[in-house]
Structures are given as C-alpha cells and as structure tokens.
Amino acid sequence: FVPSSLDGGMPTTASRSTTTSLHVATDPRKTAASSSSYPAGDAAGGEWSPSSWKNAVAKQMPVYDDPAELERAVSTLNRVAPLVFAGEVRSLHEKLARVTQGQGFVLMGGDCAESFKEFHVNHIRDTFRVLMQMALVLTFGSAMPVVKIGRMAGQFAKPRSEPNEVIDGVSLPSYRGDNVNREEFTPEARRNNPNLMVDAYYQSAQTLNILRAFSTGGFADISRLHAWNLDFVEGTEESSRYHKLAAKIDESLRFMKAIGIDTSKPEFTSVDFYTAHECLLLPYEQALTRQDSTTGKWYDCSAHMLWVGERTRDLDGAHLEFTRGIGNPLAVKVSDKCTPEELIRIIDTMNPQNVPGKLSIIVRMGAEKLRKNLPGLIRAVQREGKAVVWISDPVHGNTRKSDTGFKTRDFDSIRAELRAFFDVHDEMGSHPGGVHLEMTGEDVTECTGGVSAVSDETLGSRYNTACDPRLNGSQALELAFLIAERMRMRTGLPPL
Ligand SMILES: O=C[C@H](O)[C@H](O)COP(=O)(O)O
Ligand SMILES: C=C(OP(=O)(O)O)C(=O)O
Ligand SMILES: [Mn+2]
C-alpha cells in the first residue's frame, strides 16, 4: 500500500520501493511547458507552475547563445520517459519520514560530477559496491535501517566559484558539468551546448537501468556480502575489519535460517536504492517534471530526491521557486553563512506544511564552524517544531589546494567534521540523520590521508575527477566504520 499523498502528515504504512506505481504521466502534453528564456523577476509566493522559476533570478545557470537550439533540446526532453516513478519517490519519502523520528540513517554518496568519459558499467558497479559495504557496516553497527541514495544517474551540473577560468592569460568560461559544456580548455568545448542535456539524460537512463539491475537482480543479495569487498582494498586493515564484520553477519544469517526465517525473501536478496542530484540546471529539471495522474501532483522525474546547493539557495531565487512545487523529497545544503532565521524561512518555503521526510538539511561548513554554528540552527528548528533530517556533508567545507596544485581534501579534516556533527547532535539531543559524501568505489588518489595514505606527492597518480576530489573506496569504508561506532555509542551498544 502506498498512500496517494503524503501531504496529510506522517505516513503510517511501510512499503518496499519495488511496489512501484507507474502513474506518472508520459504524455508530452502533460509535461512541463518548454521555453527558451528565463528573465529575472519576482516569483516567490505566487502561483507555482513547472516554469514559474523563470520569473525569479536563476544563479549559476548557463546562458545559451542559440534559443532555437535550446528549444529543440528541451522539447526532446519533454518527450523522454521519466527516469523515476511517483511510487518510488513516495517510498523514499516514507523512509525519510522515519529518519526524522530517529529511526534510520541516510547514506548518500557518489561522484562530485558524473562525466561522459568515466561512464562505464564497472564504474557504477564499484560505487554501488562500496555503498553496499558501507550500508552493511552502518546497518549492523547502528542497528538501524539505512536509506541508500546515490549521487548518480543525473549528478552532472556544477555551480562554480568563478565564471571564467584563466590559463596562461587565456580566459574561457568555466567548465560547468558534462550536461552544460565540456572540460577541454577550448572555446568550442566551453560553449554551453543544450544538446548535452539530452546526452546526459540518456546516460542517466543507462545508469539507472544498471542500478536497478544491481539492486534487485542478485548482486545486492546479502549472502554475497564478502563479494562486495573491493579488490584494491583486500589485504588492508579496512578489508580485514570488513571481513570480520561480514563473518559476524554470516553467523547471524545462519542463525536466522536455523530458526526458520526464509533468507531468500526480497528483504535479504535486494535493496531499495534511490538517486539524487543537485537541482541546478532548471531547463532540464523542468522538462523532466511530470504530473502524477492519480494525485495530480508534480514530480521531478529526473531523480527520487533533489537538493538545492549552498550557492543557489536564495529565498527569492529560481531554485527554491522550482523545488517548492515538486512532490519529491528535497534537501538544501547549508554552510556557516546560513543564519537560523534564514534556515527557518528556507524550511517554510521548501516544506510549508512541515511534512516529515520532505526536507533534509545537509550541513557542510568544516569542523570548527560547525561546532560554532550548528547548535543555533538545531535550536531554531527545535523551537519552531520543524521536522527535518540532519545530514552531514563533511567534504565540501574542507577543500584545499595542495602544494602540488591539486584541489584536494584531507581525510583528517573530513573525520573531524563528522565527529563535530555527532558531538553537536549528542549535546542538542537531536538525531544525526545521515551522511553525504563525494566518493567512488575506485582506487583514485584525490583526497589525502586515511589508511590508504594518499599524500600531496601521490595525488597525481590517479586523479580522475571531473570536479571535486572524491574519497576512494577504502577511505569511504573507513568513514563508514567511524560513523557506525558513533551510532553504536549513542544507542549504548559496545564497540564493533
Ligand atoms: O561541487 C561543488 C562545487 O561545484 C565546486 O566545489 C566548485 O568548485 P570551484 O570552487 O572549483 O568552482
Ligand atoms: C556543489 C555542491 O555542494 P555545495 O552546494 O554544498 O557547495 C556539491 O554537492 O557538489
Ligand atoms: Mn562537489
């Protein structure tokens, strides 16, 4: 049973996402209208429509030089199949609603920017695999359900600090993600090309197809838990920790079988896996926004969950205007620049009816600022009685440039921010509801430190990211153990 609408408040009945309802309209006449321009104006508070964001200021949005070309790309996207379906979106919403009540933990992870050049089934498999390992560690460690969400199948568009990049005195528009322009430093590559949105859609469709197969086709079967270990992690301390935990879980499974529990049921053989990305490139998001024929609600069918970034979360901006009208679970990223008053106004805009599970707050500010600022944000939310999921993004507040010229992050600073996040929630009596990471299953050398001991000197050996540095598989697993230990402490369980 999937309730047709969550607007009435807390859902009461659990459902697995496999009970998908296919009610989202695919009729192009019911898709969001296309338009090729988005002038500044004032939209906030008025009538919402999938295109009402065009009346507000859209920061970080590419300007396309050929309106007819944009129009053609958008009209193609208006006709493509939705990537996700309303029933799946609602099942994620229900799980997040439980997290607001302290029942569960959210694990979000994936590339900073998906790219065309890195696209390969093995890349998706490796990220999915390490997320499965992490989820296992977290579920067993915390004795709580873990909500698994990939920054995958749509995480392309990037907000940038500088509109232009200058190399050897030559200035070109910054790279903004493979669905906007290309990384190569030439005027042709850096031109905003609307057709890239269509290419990114088709890559996302392939990615989602693979993810659905991995989630339900046997790969995620818990009896294969040893097979999820990554080859390059084998032999390390993290790997032996993982195998020890896996052996304990094996034993529990044998016990369950012995007392007659059927471990071939979907609860053991498949996982509910969801997708999310930054809701940045609004012409794309609008085109994928469809009306659910059973409820009349609009869903952005490009992903199950969408978040608004730190750089585009203005109260009167286009991104809040767009997201306030869609039925998907939402998130907003906040740095130390966000005041408690501003946060409450953001919550009132994105989740005016205070529906539990509708909105997550992703905190990203570095350990020191977090210790100073997060208590005030939590206090305001508690005072106003808002239901939110608190998620830590311990990576975006910790970016630095190495002496060797790479944009990187230190494992120690990431760990320090996570510790601070847990400490503050302990002090405030609130629920640390999840973690959001830029990571990959591959053995990249993009972040320094951790047991894998990447250093400034070795960053260059496998630095493959299209934007921000990602944790590699072993660094990500190491963090999962750290989080699991903190969750155990909170519930009074002994160390793993
Ligand atoms: O992913 C986040 C942002 O897009 C990224 O950190 C911006 O990076 P920049 O400061 O290099 O533009
Ligand atoms: C742009 C991002 O983050 P933020 O909005 O927190 O800077 C991101 O998640 O890649
Ligand atoms: Mn990033």
Automatic annotation (TrEMBL):
Catalytic activity: D-erythrose 4-phosphate + phosphoenolpyruvate + H2O = 7-phospho-2-dehydro-3-deoxy-D-arabino-heptonate + phosphate
Binding locations of phosphoenolpyruvate: 151, 310-311, 333, 364
UniProt keywords, alphabetically: Amino-acid biosynthesis, Aromatic amino acid biosynthesis, Cadmium, Cobalt, Manganese, Signal, Transferase
InterPro entries associated with the record: Aldolase_TIM, DAHP_synth_2
Biased composition (Polar residues): 12-23
Cofactor note: Binds 1 divalent cation per subunit. The enzyme is active with manganese, cobalt or cadmium ions.
Protein's name in the database: Phospho-2-dehydro-3-deoxyheptonate aldolase
Organism: Cyclostephanos tholiformis
